[in-house]
Amino acid sequence: MRPFLCIAASSLFTHYIFNRHEPITPQPVLATIFAVPTLWSILFLSHFASPLSTILFSFATYFFVLALSIASYRLSPFHPLASFPGTTISKLTKWWGVWETYEGRHYIRVHELHKKHGPIVRVGPNELSIADVAAIPAVLGSTGLPKGHWYGSRQDLRASKNLQVLNGDAHANRRRLWNRGLSSDSIESYSDIIETRAAQLIDCLERQPGKICLSSFFSRFAFDFLGDMAFGGGFELLRDGDTQHLNEIVDNGVIVSNIISQIPWVTSLMHLVPSWCNDALALRDLGYNKANERLSRGSIVKDLYYHLADDGRLERQSPSVADVLSDGTLAIVAGTDTIKTTLSAVFYHLLLNPTCYQHLQDEVDRVFPNPDDPMDFNKLTEMEYLDACINETLRVMPSVPTNGSRRIPRGHGPRTIAGSVIPEETEIFVSPYPLHRDPRYFSPEPESFLPERWVQSPSFIPFSYGPHNCVGRQIAYRQLRYVVCLMMRRFTVQFASGFCPREWIEKACDRLVLSTDPLPVVLDPRKKSA
Ligand code: HEM
C-alpha cells in the first residue's frame, strides 16, 4: 500500500505543479514523467519480487493516477471553464481537435458546437471559441488580447520569427514595413501586374478546349501575381505549368503546422518525425530561397520586398536579413491559396445560383458594354453586385475559416468578454466561420449564398480584425474584382458534366487556408474584341 500511496501522491503533485505552471514546451513534461516513476522504482526496489515488476508498477500507477487526476479535474465543476458548454471529449482533451484538424473538418465541428450550445463553447480543456460580435474588438482589437500558444506552431524554430508570429512592438515594427508594401500607393503600382497576369490567365483559358480545372488556373494566376508583386517575378506557372510542384509544396507544408496548432507544445519535437519536417522545410526553403534571390538581385522595381527590406531607408533601424527572409514563406502562403480558393468559391456559388450569375453578368455588361472597354479599377470598385458576390462568398466560405487564438495572460486577472467572465490563461478563438453563419447577424438563411443581402456588418471578419488583421486585404479585393469581372466578360462558365457540387463543398478542408478539390468547368468564349 505504501508504494501505491507515495506514487499516487506524486502523480497528484505533478498534476498540481503543471496545472499552476503550464509548460509550453514538452521537454520539462517528458523529463518529469520519466524521472518521477524511475525514482520510485529505485526507492521501492526491495518491496517487489523483481526490478521489472517494480518498474511496471511504478510507471503504471504513476500514469494511471496522473491521467485520472487530469481527466477528473477537466470534467469537474472546479475547473475554471466548467460553466462553459462543450462535448465531454472537447473538455477532456485537445486530441479530438488534432483528429478533426487532420481530417480538415475542425471548423465544421466548432460551428456545430455553436449551433447546439450557443455563442461560447469549450473547444479544448483550456480553450473557448466565441461567436459573438462583442468579442471581436474585445479579443482581436487593439485593446484586446495578445496572441495565444496557437501561433507557436507557425514558428520555424530554425529561423527568425515571421510577421504572423510576432506580438506587441516587434509586430508593430515589422507590420510598418508590410503596411508600406501594401499601402494604397503601392497597390496602385501593382495594378499593371494584375492586368498583365489576368490577361495571360484569359489567354491560357482560351486555349483550353473542353473541360478544364478552373481552380488550378486560378492558382497559377495567384502564384504568378504574388511572385511579381512580392519578389519582382519568377514563378511563371501560367506559362510553364506547375513544373516545380509549388502547389504541392505549399499544401503539404502547412498541413503539419495546422495539425500541431492544436497541440503547439509539440512544435519543438517536430524534428523527430522526418517526413513532417521535410514538408515544412520544403515550404520554408521555397519562401527563403525566393526572398534570398530577390535580395541578392537588389531592388529593380518597388515590389513588396523593396519595402520589407527597407530599401527606401525609412526606418531608423533597418530590419535584419534573417527577419526579411523569414517573411518570404508567409507572403507565399498568405497570398496564393487564399486567392485561389476565393476565386474558385465565387464561381462555384455563382454557378450554383444561376439568378445571381445572371444578375452579375448584367452588371458587368452594363459597366463594360463594349469588348474593348478598358477595365478601370475605379469602375470596378463601384460595381455593387460584384462586391456583394465576393463578400457573400467570403462570408459563407471564408478562405481562412479559423483565426489564430488569443490568450488572457497569467497575472492579468479574468476578463469579461461577450457578457461572460473568462479566467486568465484561457485560449480564445474568434473565428469567421461560425460568426458568418450566425442567424443573429445574417438572416434569413445564414447558410445560403444570397448576395442581395449584402450590407457591411461588424460581424463580417474574413480578414480578421485589429492590429493582426490581414495586411493584404486591399490587394486581395483588387485581384478578386478584376479577375471575376474579366472572366465574366470573356466567358460563359458552366459546371462540367458529372460534377457534384455537394461533394465539392463537403470536401473543403481547413488547412489554415481552406483547401478545395479541383473545380471542373466548361468555358464558352463570349463576344471577342475587334
Ligand atoms: C481572400 C484573400 C485573403 C483572405 C481571406 C485573408 C485572410 C487573412 C486572415 C484571416 C489573416 C489573419 C490570420 C491570423 O489569425 O493570424 C490574414 C493575415 C495575413 N494576410 Fe491575408 N488574406 C487574404 C489575402 C492575402 C494576400 C493577397 C496577402 C498578401 C501577401 C495576405 C497577407 C497576409 C499577411 C502578411 C498576414 C499576417 C498579418 C499579421 O500578422 O500582421 N493576405 N489574412
Q: Which helices and strands occur, and which strands form pairs?
A:
Layout: H1 2-20, H2 26-43, H3 51-75, H4 88-92, H5 95-103, H6 106-117, E1 120-124, E2 127-130, H7 135-140, H8 168-181, H9 184-206, E3 211-213, H10 214-231, H11 237-240, H12 246-260, H13 274-297, H14 304-308, H15 321-335, H16 337-352, H17 354-367, H18 377-381, H19 384-396, E4 406-407, E5 415-417, E6 420-422, E7 427-429, H20 432-436, H21 473-490, E8 491-495, H22 501-506, E9 509-511, E10 513-515, E11 520-525
Helix pairs in contact: 1-2, 1-3, 2-3, 5-12, 9-10, 9-21, 10-15, 10-16, 12-13, 13-15, 16-19, 16-21
The structure holds protoporphyrin IX containing FE.
Q: Output the number of helix runs.
A: 22
Radius of gyration: 26 Å
Query: What is the 3D shape?
Result: globular
Q: Quick one: biggest sheet?
A: 4 strands, mixed
Low-confidence stretches: none
Structural class: alpha+beta
Distance between the termini: 94 Å
Strand order of the largest sheet: 1-2-7-4
How many E strands?
A: 11
| Residue-averaged pLDDT | 94
Ligands bound here? protoporphyrin IX containing FE
Helix content: 40-55%
Structure description:
The chain has 530 residues and is of the alpha+beta class. It is built from 22 helices and 11 strands. The strands form 4 sheets. It has a 4-stranded mixed beta sheet with strand order 1-2-7-4. Strands 3-11-8 form a 3-stranded antiparallel beta sheet. Strand 5 and strand 6 form a beta hairpin. Helix 9 (184-206) runs antiparallel to helix 10 (214-231), helix 10 (214-231) runs antiparallel to helix 15 (321-335) and helix 16 (337-352) crosses helix 21 (473-490). The chain is globular and about 95 Å long. The protein binds protoporphyrin IX containing FE. Residues 163-164, 175, 178, 330-331, 334-335, 338-339, 342, 398-400, 403-404, 462-464, 468, 470-472, 475-476 line the site of protoporphyrin IX containing FE (HEM).
